[in-house]
Design a protein that fits this description.
Layout (H helix, E strand, L loop, with lengths): L14 E7 L26 H14 L3 E10 L4 H5 L5 H4 L4 E2 L2 E2 L7 H19 L7 E4 L3 H11 L6 E3 L18 H7 L3 E3 L18 H15 L6 E6 L1 H11 L11 E10 L3
Parallel strand pairs: 2-8, 5-6, 5-8, 6-7
Antiparallel strand pairs: 1-9, 2-9, 3-4
Helix pairs in contact: 4-5, 7-8
GO molecular function, one term: phosphatase activity
Pfam family, one: His_Phos_1
Protein name: Phosphoglycerate mutase
Length: 274
């Protein structure tokens, strides 16, 4: 299995401008499903070894740019995805429970667990075929993403970094409210937290929803944080709305992920000279 070496850069590197590069067929085909494609959709003119060498060479070439391969994964089907089609969802979504369902920071459904089990199998197959193993793992703090991370990678994988900026658009609906830090730590004991992660959810409000513009702002902040780190092969477990905003920030064509889907993106970050 190919495991690329870490690149060592100064932590003063601060990227401000981002550009998605066209290495994968999903870039130009928004209907493609990654898990139906060999090599995560890597274009046929590339092998994994040639692609990774390209990334290495590009990173070695300039002090002003960095290149990252990011696997963006949406959580599997959760209960709010099922109940969201109910005609009175507007009222239901403000409750912590509905009938026998827990909506507050809701979990995966059995279908969602099955979806992510298939993603796990796909990863194993592609890793055996030469795909690179991520050097760092990030996840949203919501339960459905933590559960997705567990099934995809297994607790023996090591630490995932829990990041507030990767959560779904927050406010009003209880599935978007998170548990406290202690609960998350108990649920995912292989997880670590970004610096400054609050004990309680200080962002979610019962009467105010976050704007899409603000989701995009925090998506950019998270991407900027990637470019001051050495890792260049990255796994992310997040949400549809957040992933849409990440794609906007990097200038990637629209690609709407269904529950349990993922997309690889290559991102060029350019250093600010201001």
């Amino acid at each position: 299995m190919y495991i690329p070496k870490l690149l060592k850069y100064s932590l003063t590197f601060a990227a401000q401008d981002f550009q998605a590069l066209d290495y994968f067929t999903q870039y130009s085909n928004s209907s493609s499903v990654t898990t139906d494609l060999p090599n995560f959709g890597l274009k046929s003119e590339h092998s994994w070894s040639s692609f990774l060498q390209d990334i290495q060479d590009l990173n070695d070439k300039s002090d002003d740019t960095r290149y990252k391969l990011i696997f963006l994964a949406r959580h599997g089907e959760a209960w709010h995805n099922v109940l969201g089609s109910l005609p009175n969802w507007y009222e239901i979504s403000r409750q912590d429970t509905y009938k026998n369902y827990t909506l507050f920071d809701d979990d995966l459904t059995p279908t969602g667990e099955s979806q992510i089990s298939k993603v796990h199998d796909y990863w194993i197959n592609e890793l055996n075929n030469g795909a690179p193993y991520p050097q760092v793992f990030y996840t949203s703090p919501l339960r459905r993403t933590l559960h997705t991370y567990h099934i995809t990678w297994g607790v023996e994988n090591g630490s995932a970094i829990v990041v507030e900026n990767l959560r779904e658009r927050y406010g009003i609906e209880t599935p978007e409210e998170r548990h406290n830090k202690t609960w998350i730590s108990d649920y995912c004991n292989v997880c670590e937290f970004e610096k400054g992660f609050a004990q309680d959810d200080e962002l979610w409000k019962p009467d105010e929803q976050e704007s899409k513009k603000h989701v995009r702002k925090r998506a950019k902040e998270w991407i900027q944080s990637l470019f001051i780190r050495d890792e260049h092969i990255i796994s992310v477990t997040s949400h549809s709305g957040t992933i849409k905003q990440i794609l906007k920030v990097i200038g990637h064509p629209k690609h709407s992920l269904q529950p349990g889907e993922l997309i690889p993106v290559v991102v060029k970050g350019r250093k600010s000279h201001n």
